[in-house]
Amino acid sequence: MSQIERPTADQIPDPVRNSAILRKVIWRRVHEWNQNFMGVVVGETGKGKSYASLRLAEALDPHFSIDDVAFTLEEFFTLVEEDRPEGSVIVLDEAGVGASHRDWYDDAHQHLNYVLQTWRHQNRIALLTLPELDKLDPVARSRLHGYFEMVRINHDEQWSRAQYKNIKTNPRTGENYFRYPRLRWDGTKRKYKGLTFGLPSDEIREQYEPAKKEFTDSLNEGARESVTPEEEEDDYAPREVVDEVEQRDALDAYLEDSPGGQYINRDLLKVDYGLTENESKTVKSLLKRRFDLDVM
Q: Which residue intervals make up region (Disordered) (predicted)?
């Protein structure tokens, strides 16, 4: 595999230079092996996964800003398609989307292949935050390179800890394997199991919190609207049902045959239009008159 020119020591950010995992795994993959890196930061609510991803992004990319944080897939794809320098980081923050918002994850599954195809030669970094890795299906998981699992948070001392594992996928079975990296560091080769994160910068935190609130407020409002019936859809008046049946030329859908002759199936009308028993009888009478029907 072709390599780009290796950055000099003074070009490597201090947090990267002082971390075996950041320096030997992520930085090397992007800046020396000419590849992209996609990682996932997993943790239940309150474990600090969003702040950890922001701090990680700042460590890897000194130019990282709130403009590089996406809360929706549309925002994420816009950032992917922008012409940005090698080593730049994008954070896709799940930000409380939650298990009830299944469509969000379905879209993520469908589009991760597109993301890889679009930027696999751009040497960039994407970090996704999720409550559980199982939110992504096996195909989507196979596109990831690194797995951070939040295991501890200390609010008083303002730090959090994550285990880190490389993700490898068996090309024959599609099975994912998670392994701690073995790295040579300070003259010794050993297994490295995790990272400790401080808080993101004041600037990032001050901009992130209102942006997250705006997104979650919008998400919650959309959820409320989806379960609140609109007034105009509450009820069909009997005459409106007859008008719609005529406009749709749908009369035959409600006519059934029986040994005694044709009849209007009031049960279907009740189901389709939410009619009461008495309303369905009224609709039946109106249909017979409107269409001059001789039916039961």
A: 216-238
Tokens of 270: 């009740």
Beta bridge partners of 232: none
For 160, the 3-state DSSP assignment is: strand
Give the residue ranges of DSSP H helices in the chain.
14-17, 20-21, 49-60, 73-81, 102-119, 138-141, 202-227, 238-247, 266-273, 277-290
- CA gap 112, 266 in Å, rounded: 48
Q: What are phi and psi of 47, to 5 degrees?
A: -85, -5
The closest alpha carbon to 145, from 61, 26, 47, belongs to 26
Q: Report whether 181 contacts 21 (CB < 8 A).
A: yes
Angle between helices 277-290 and 238-247 (to 10 degrees): 50
Residues whose CB falls within 8 Å of the CB of residue 104, separated by 6 or more in sequence, listed in order: 73, 94, 97
Treating both helix axes as pointing N-terminal to C-terminal, what angle do 49-60 and 202-227 enclose, rounded to 10 degrees?
Answer: 140
Question: Which residue from 106, 79, 104, 102 is spatially nearest to 90, judged by alpha carbons?
Answer: 79
Tell me the whole-structure pTM to 2 decimals.
Answer: 0.70
Q: Which amino acid is at 23?
A: R
- Taken in order of first residue, the domains within the chain and their CATH numbers are 9-226 (3.40.50), 232-290 (no CATH)
pLDDT digits over 254-281, tens only? 888 887 788 898 888 888 888 888 888 8
